[in-house]
Amino acid sequence: MGLLTDIRDSISRVTTRFFEGPNQEPKRIGIYGPPNAGKTTLANRIARDWTGDAVGPESHVPHETRRARRKENVEIQRNGHSVTIDIVDTPGVTTKVDYKEFLEHDIEKDDAVRRSREATEGVAEAMHWLREDVDGVIYVLDSAEDPFTQVNTMLIGIIESRDLPVLIFANKIDLDESSVQRISNAFPQHETVPLSALEGENMDEVYDKIAEYFA
Amino acid sequence: MPEYTTSDGEGVQIDLISGERMSNLRTMEKIRLILDGVHKGNIVILEDGLSPDEESKLIEVTMNEISPDEFTGIEIETYPRPSRNEGGFLGRLMGRDTDDNKLTVIGPANRIETLHKDENLISALVTRK
């Protein structure tokens, strides 16, 4: 029975993906990645380009985004077609949060403890969203950092296990230390798109790929 | 799990948990077994690791248990999984990935630090309290 159920579920997933109609509900696309990869900067760039509004405040302080934030009905137009998505900007995923890290950014202890508590709740929430509530994932990495981390390995594994379409965005290509090739080599099974969300570099390709993967 | 105390009280306890033992547990039982050990300051080594879904829940439960000045979370290391796309059409159709089981090291974030990791080697530094 297990074998037949597996086959039936797999075929159902494939056929659903192939035959969804053009007037379907917007796909909910989660923006995931480690802290400080530029997820909110990217979410704001996309939201501003297509709706004129931002999603949330950006900061160099880790865990500035401590709650998943959503921008609904972002309509992206490419090559005469339009794709409507809901963007979900999530807190940077980690396995550890120490309030003392916030003290290094001139934040008082009480505020640091509150931020760390919110950050842990936000990461737990982001993991829950990933299991239950997203239709596709944009995985954002800082191309100036080593991508070979456990969080990246685990999250990509979790996304793959759920058969979610995923695009890897190699962000911060404006930095001298940036290496897009290092990210491509780390995750060769997925397409890597270089960009600078801060400077708006290569956004045409970003939107082409979003339309291609999540339409 | 039996508890022992080292002679100087400052040693590091390492729990090596066999794949067979874990296979008889449900997801939350596995997570409790791991986190109960980590809360005591132990290093937990899983012969067969966790499934992606279990890893996701481990992160979620860990986040809910972080407490200032008491528990700052976990350090976890495992070898990268091979791409599911390399498993062939039938394996993908069936959602089967026969080579998922990877040795996994988990410890308290304030006591274990990864020094190096690649596809074949994990090098970690474990410190006493």
Could you characterize the architecture of this molecule?
- The complex is a heterodimer of chains A (215) and B (129).
- Chain A has helices spanning 2-19, 39-51, 100-103, 109-132, 150-161, 180-186, 203-214; strands at residues 27-32, 69-78, 81-89, 136-142, 166-171, 192-194.
- With 215 residues, chain A is an alpha/beta fold.
- In chain A, strands 2-3-1-4-5-6 form a six-stranded mixed β-sheet, sandwiched between helices.
- The longest helix of chain A is centred in the middle third of the chain and has 24 residues, at 109-132.
- Residues 14-22 of chain A have low confidence and may be disordered.
- In chain B, 28% of the residues are buried.
- Chain B is of the alpha+beta class and 129 residues long.
- Chain B contains four helices and six strands; from the N terminus they run E-H-H-E-H-E-H-E-E-E.
- Chain B has helices spanning 19-23, 27-39, 52-65, 88-93; strands at residues 14-17, 43-46, 74-78, 104-108, 112-117, 122-126.
- In chain B, the strands form two sheets. In chain B, strands 1-2-4-3 form a four-stranded mixed β-sheet. Chain B has a two-stranded antiparallel sheet with strand order 5-6.
Topology:
The complex is a heterodimer of chains A (215) and B (129).
Chain A: H1 2-19, E1 27-32, H2 39-51, E2 69-78, E3 81-89, H3 100-103, H4 109-132, E4 136-142, H5 150-161, E5 166-171, H6 180-186, E6 192-194, H7 203-214
Parallel strand pairs in A: 1-3, 1-4, 4-5, 5-6
Antiparallel strand pairs in A: 2-3
Chain B: E1 14-17, H1 19-23, H2 27-39, E2 43-46, H3 52-65, E3 74-78, H4 88-93, E4 104-108, E5 112-117, E6 122-126
Parallel strand pairs in B: 1-2
Antiparallel strand pairs in B: 2-4, 3-4, 5-6
Helix pairs in contact in B: 2-3
